[in-house]
Amino acid sequence: MNSITEQLLSVVSDWDGSYKGAYNIREDGGCAGRQSSENIKIEPKSDNPGIVIKISSKAQNETVYIPACVTKAGVNDLVYNDFIVEDGADVIIVAGCGVHSEGEEEARHNGIHRFFIGKNAKVLYKEKHIGTGNGKGAKRIDPVTDVEMDENSYMEMDTVQIGGVTSTSRLTTAKLGKDAKLVIRERLMTEGDEKAKSDFKVDMNGDGSSVDLVSRSVARGNSYQEFISTINGNCRCTGHSECDAILSENGRVNAVPGLFAGNIDASLIHEAAIGKIAGEQITKLCTLGLTEEEAERKIIDGFLK
Amino acid sequence: MLQLKDIRWSTETGESILNGVDLTVPDGKLTVITGPNGGGKTSLAKVIAGLYKPEGGQIIADGKDITDWSITERSRHGLAYAFQQPVRFKGLTVRDLLSISAGKELTSAEVCHLLATVGLCGRDYIDREADASLSGGESKRIEIATVLARKDAKILVFDEPEAGIDLWSFTSLIEAFENIKKDSDRSLLIISHQERIMNIADYIAVVAEGKVSKMGTREEIFPSLMDKTAATRCSLRTNEGGAL
Q: What is the rounded CA–CA span in Å between residue B185 and residue A284?
């Protein structure tokens, strides 16, 4: 792999020169390294570009790394990855993405991930996105994530956009079976003229299922963000979504939360708060010795932590 | 030492709140400012901390004229201020806040020690966000802890630290104030209506109608305040029509 990939990997997917266990590194649309482990098998797809990751029930607290990097302008990478998590497996999936460009043309990664999570399985999905380089061409990351969760399974999605991504459109859909639990934590920072759209659609179809979706974002410069969430409670279930956004300079945020209760025992909550940093927060931190700039940075860093 | 000379301040609408406050807060002593509601006590604390800019007068802290200094400059000069109404932060944990205050990354043991001083069990709070999920009393105690964490501060200002604090936590807070007094030459300035805080004061200043109406040692001022309180209670009961 090239040095830009190595740099991006260190930021988005804990790369320190090697990975332990199973991994697949995607670089500019090709494979830059792949390894299966005893309990996690990675194989190429036959119908589309991409891989199938089979995680056996024997995998317990194991980690698999599936990062993707685009390192130059003019690359438009589209990949289809399927994650098949067997009943009772317990796995951490690290799937960061970095896009680097020094050219005029657009550089884009579009990852379509499907998750099939078996009964009693547990998945922690970590995803960091970053754009780097001084190229004028747009740096785009447009992930699509589809999740199907079987009985009593658990999935936590921890997604972060650190910065530098010109445009992103993130579409996440999930279907939850009986007693399945989905936790989503999204943190997003946009600056300059960047645009970001997050669109979540969660169907709770099994009794006792639950979703807890929290999105925190900071919109600076002239950037624009859109947050859409649709939570459908079709059974006895609980759903919570929360959208908190801090505005700075000319940043703009449009939040469109949606709740649908299709059952008398569905209990759904949405919270949303958008606004600039409260003046009293800056003042308090100044009384602790920080300058206004330092205070603002601390508040934003903490908010997105 | 903190000296206030002829401090004047009005609201944006022109209402005069501080009408020439003169006050000296000596090193190593605890001075309590008390007085009727609306008399200007909190405004005075905010003027000292730099939240309000006075229209006239001078603020001298440890020999430096800090009247025109920013909040940050005052803080770095050794002035610490605990808000009457604590500020909430989404995303900053109690540990973050106390570490910022201490100017270094605090260990868990250090955070727990600070929280214990204000009557909180550290393990339950250390990694909690200092946000609206905390009760008013919990936030208030963490606010006080942010000032206690300031080991570099030479002048500590607390605005009604008793508000929202339960009896048991209040006892440990009183001990904390007494220890500061005993173990250092830092100046403590506490705005309070609480008898137990006035009981440990070295000096008491009564602020009413934007001025210091009375100032002296605790022995000089405290008995007259108690007489006044008792008289007010009697007068209220008489006005209510009750026979004494």
A: 25
Chain B residues inside the 8 Å CB shell of A291: 72
- Taking only the tens of pLDDT, chain A with its 305 residues reads 899 999 999 999 989 989 999 999 999 999 999 999 999 999 999 989 999 999 999 999 999 999 999 999 999 999 999 999 999 999 999 999 999 999 999 999 999 999 999 999 999 999 999 999 998 999 999 999 999 999 999 999 999 998 899 999 999 999 999 999 999 999 999 999 999 999 999 999 999 999 999 999 999 999 999 999 999 999 999 999 999 999 999 999 999 999 999 999 999 999 999 999 999 999 999 999 999 999 999 999 999 98
Q: Which residue of B has its CA nearest to A279?
A: B87
Q: Do A302 and B92 touch (CB under 8 A)?
A: yes
| Residue B232 belongs to some domain of the structure | yes
The answer to whether residue B14 sits within a structural domain is yes
Residue B119 lies in a domain: no
End-to-end Cα distance, chain A: 30
Terminal Cα-to-Cα distance of chain B (whole angstroms): 46
Q: Which residues contact A65 (CB under 8 A, 6 or more apart)?
A: A13, A14, A15, A19, A21, A22, A23, A24, A25, A94, A95
Classified as helix, coil or strand, A277 is coil
Range of the domain at B194: 2-83+154-239
User: Which residue of chain B has the CA closest to A298?
Assistant: B92
